[in-house]
Amino acid sequence: MYKNIDSNKRRTVLLIFVFLIFVIGLGYLLSWYFDNQFILVLAVLIATIQALVSYYYSDSITLAISGAKEVPHQEPFLNLHRAVENLALTAGLPKPKIFLIQDSAPNAFATGRDPQHASLAVTTGLLEKLNKTELEGVVAHEMSHIGNYDIRLMTLIVVLVGVVALLSDFFLRWTWFGSRRRSDGESGQIQLILFIVAIVLAILAPLVATVIQLAISRKREFLADASGALLTRYPEGLASALEKIAQDREPLEVANKATAHLYIESPFKKSTAQGKGWLVGLFTTHPPVEERIRRLKAMIK
Amino acid sequence: MIVLWITLGIVGILIIWFIAVFNGIVTLKNRTKEAWSDIDVQLKRRHDLIPNLIETVKGYATHEKEVFQKVTEARSQAMQAKGAEETGKAENILTDTLKSLFAVSENYPQLRATENFQKLQDELTDTENKIEASRRFYNGNVRDFNTMIQVFPNSMVAGMTGSKEFELFGMDEAEKETPQVKF
């Protein structure tokens, strides 16, 4: 448990470090090519500010892009509040803020930089479709993510890696379309540098994806399942919740590439995920749900 | 000369080890104390709810003085209890008397229909669930702490610094007593 926390904190530092090197390196490359020191200064500034903002505000950003609203402490949400309060007590953590996403697809995620600044988001579909023990199972799974500091790393990834993935996407498209449209001499030089950047990014993008895979390994989800089951002492709850979530064919509309790995179960349903191409393929961050259910059921003795 | 250096080295390592174990004990001790305060908050809330409950029930069930008295007594016993083990026992007695209070209130449909009564009953149930939740966290910590100071060689550090074991909270008597076999 405490080993996991340490390793997560280390990985967070590593992630920020890699990000800083990446953006500043990109800035250096551009400033060297254009012979302009200003670009490097700008890159350093942007990278630093972005890293700081990500550390302190990535949870708010994540909640905002998911369209989550804070849940008032009153009916009909009292049961949800109580489930969270009780599991927070059992886990010895402060009660996280609770948010609601208006979406009929059942899913949930936790975010924040530490247990003191943690938030838990559930969809309306989750509240409608799950019973009490299943809901407790899901909340317990998320509480373990909070206790393990998984949330800090996973949420930072949303913003930092999201930017890198977006940049590489952007550069690739730009040069691809640009090189086909224009081939005259004047823009040739810019074309060339953009092409180099694009190549670099194209090489880096899978690397970045690997970083994500490393960070959000299958082990992390299995671990959260196991410690969640330990909190409720009732693995059946989470197992049957996962079954329901997996069987539900509705895709979660508010989830995107950057936030997908946060959710308790992949928000892209198999039918839709296949159509979305290589990026989604790289971001398949969840172990197969059948395997998770099997392991949970094996705990029932 | 070499012997001196080796001796100094061993002493140095021993001191570092002592500090590490000592700090570990202190950290776990504080965490356990914090866990106890979680329980304490919930126990206080429970004790505060009971007078309200008695007042509400009194309004309808006027002839059940004995039950009220028992609950009140159990409550003040529980409030005076010191230490986890004693508190646990007193709270168990309080739970039993509350059960009889709710059993009595079953006979008064009008009482059960009141919003106030329902709300109090609901809050008491919630409090009891929370006591149970914080109990599990506390007992988990107590077990970690006790194991830590009992195992050798940590036990020497614990003995030298006077660290005492924590008591588990609220084990049911049935859980604790060894079953008696009678012929």
TrEMBL record, chain A:
Its EC number is 3.4.24.-. InterPro entries: HtpX_protease, Pept_M48_protease_HtpX, Peptidase_M48. The chain crosses the membrane at residues 12-32, 38-57, 153-172, 192-216. Residues 78-299 form the Peptidase M48 domain. It is an enzyme of class 3 (hydrolase). Zn(2+) binds at H141, H145, E221. Keywords: Cell membrane, Hydrolase, Membrane, Metal-binding, Metalloprotease, Protease, Transmembrane, Transmembrane helix, Zinc. Its main location: membrane. This is Protease HtpX homolog. Belongs to the peptidase M48B family. GO terms for cellular component: plasma membrane. Signal peptide: none annotated. GO terms for molecular function: metalloendopeptidase activity; zinc ion binding. Binds 1 zinc ion per subunit. GO terms for biological process: proteolysis. The active site is at E142. It is found in: Cell membrane. It is a multi-pass membrane protein.
From TrEMBL, chain B:
It is found in: Membrane. It comes from Berkelbacteria bacterium GW2011_GWA1_36_9. The keyword Membrane applies. Its main location: membrane. This is LemA-like protein. It is a single-pass membrane protein. The chain crosses the membrane at residues 6-26. Belongs to the LemA family. One of its GO terms (cellular component) is membrane. Keywords: Membrane, Transmembrane, Transmembrane helix. Signal peptide: none annotated. SUPFAM superfamilies: LemA-like.
